[in-house]
Amino acid sequence: MAEEIIRPVIKELKEYVPGKTPKKPGIAKLSSNENPFGPSPKALEAIAKETRNLQIYPDQKSILLREALAKELKIDEGCLIVGNGSDEIMQLAAATYLKPGEEVIISKNTFSVYEFVTRLLDGKPVFVDLKNYAQDLDAMAKAVNPKTKMIFLCNPHNPTGTIFTAKELDSFLKIIPENILIIIDEAYLEFVESREFPESLKYIRESKNLLVLRTFSKYYGLAGLRVGYGVAKKELVSYLFRAKLPFNVNRLAQAGAKAALEDKSFLEKTYKNNLEGKKYFYAELDKLGLEYKKTESNFIFINLKKPADLLFMQMMRQGVIIRPLTSFGLPEAIRVSIGTKEQNEKFIKGLSKHL
Amino acid sequence: MAEEIIRPVIKELKEYVPGKTPKKPGIAKLSSNENPFGPSPKALEAIAKETRNLQIYPDQKSILLREALAKELKIDEGCLIVGNGSDEIMQLAAATYLKPGEEVIISKNTFSVYEFVTRLLDGKPVFVDLKNYAQDLDAMAKAVNPKTKMIFLCNPHNPTGTIFTAKELDSFLKIIPENILIIIDEAYLEFVESREFPESLKYIRESKNLLVLRTFSKYYGLAGLRVGYGVAKKELVSYLFRAKLPFNVNRLAQAGAKAALEDKSFLEKTYKNNLEGKKYFYAELDKLGLEYKKTESNFIFINLKKPADLLFMQMMRQGVIIRPLTSFGLPEAIRVSIGTKEQNEKFIKGLSKHL
Fold first, then answer.
1. Do B1 and A235 touch (CB under 8 A)?
2. Are A55 and B34 inside 8 Å of each other by CB?
3. Which residues form the Aminotransferase class I/classII large domain (chains A, B) (predicted)?
């Protein structure tokens, strides 16, 4: 009945596998790269104030938040679109640009929503292997053919924490034809330490077909509110706006995100804690003799070289939730969010027991 | 550049025309059918409590809210899906079922998102005239042909406040072929006074291809939070879930909506105020000799028989925002939300001046 009439692709879509959420308090949730300090306090203040207006529809274009972002990023507000999480903007991009059968180049072992939105719009994902757990921009450029319509990049890369450099991106953009839309998901940008990280917005000012995605879910501690944004040249953004439902971003997300942007002391604390957590993890993982990747984000990738699902279960019993990377196609690896000092120690303690 | 590569339909999509929002306090906003008493107080309590978890991703399947709805509606929770507003579920339905070129039957002069999601998925909207400002189910049934894939109904009808009855729906469902998905948008259900209003969920229990949409934006006063839901047989809902982005409904929406469901005294107050407002409007509009429709919702449709955009501007200057129905294709009519006693009086006073 219903099955006979659905679009054929719907049957092929796989359900997203989220990080597990604890059912009781006191458990260290290191599975979804959330901010261990909770939401930005300034965001919470703004949210509490805005609740009195909850009976009113939200602003259709997130104008106040876009104004604040435009100022922060030194870019025209016409170059900005806000979404119900940045994954909504991935879907908008596919809905706006992707015609059935067109190809989308995506790394293997990456965030699954790139593949999802491609398939949902009847596009064809073309997967390119990682090289030493990093995106291989040369190989991705070689995969381009006349059917290529979009390329998804993720920088820093989820789940491995690696980056491609300014120099690499520059060469890549010189090779890729102008009629291909390049999307760079920079969900973890704010945690980057490397000075070689690209300033992607520069290319938008130069009018490249580039869409950069950012989020308030990680650094700003607002994953539960659903708010992310896209930056691209005005013309490109104007088409994304046409494909969007009127009231996509809730009032509290608009108000909370705007306030979070200004919460400098919370953001400094978050960055500093992450830096210290990274150093701690490197030292402890070295002691344990484990293979891991230096990270430019708020999580660390560890190659266990044995089934990760087992360790996941064992760690659960220790009160620590980690992310086995089976759903990323890496069944012998885990991704662990950098938490508070106490959470990180709890993880290392549990890990030592079960190696 | 960008224009050459977009999907052709994107250029045809029209931007949604929202109700105007006042820039200063003290203005009666009667343009978007929002709850004049603000958000449900119990929802506000639940929201305040839930903000402490805002750094955590929301539940992917809105489980707790669906459990509460299942209990309230006496239906299996597998028959329920929650959306970022019910318009997200309209889009999910189109993304799940609609193939390019398939036809979707929609009333003329109705809520514009039905047409929007149809065009976005490359479907072909087929418009059927209203009959005495109500949906003409007979004419809609006659518009069915082998290319018909979906039918959008709106009950009570936005923007005219009319309904189709249980008997009418029953006959309609007997005629429509089983392979067509019928969507009934019941955004204003809770305001219905008529005893002839259909119990649509009955047909879902009978396994019809019917998707019923409801919202927390009107009666429950949560338009700014973005939360609506769909009810359909399990199989149909399971396909909608496959087409949805993982974290579509924010945490506060899930918690707030669940609490609002239980806020019986707020809901009674809302219903009673609406009933009194209706009676007041009928009496005053009769005195003014204006043509209007008896309403089963929280707004009233008035046929001015002269350009509504002018009255809209005049009323703005009086501190009352109404909805001229130009964007609905009815340039000589207005839709006015039923507000508080004071707001309703302010509207009638302003209207009297400008007739």
1. yes
2. yes
3. 28-349
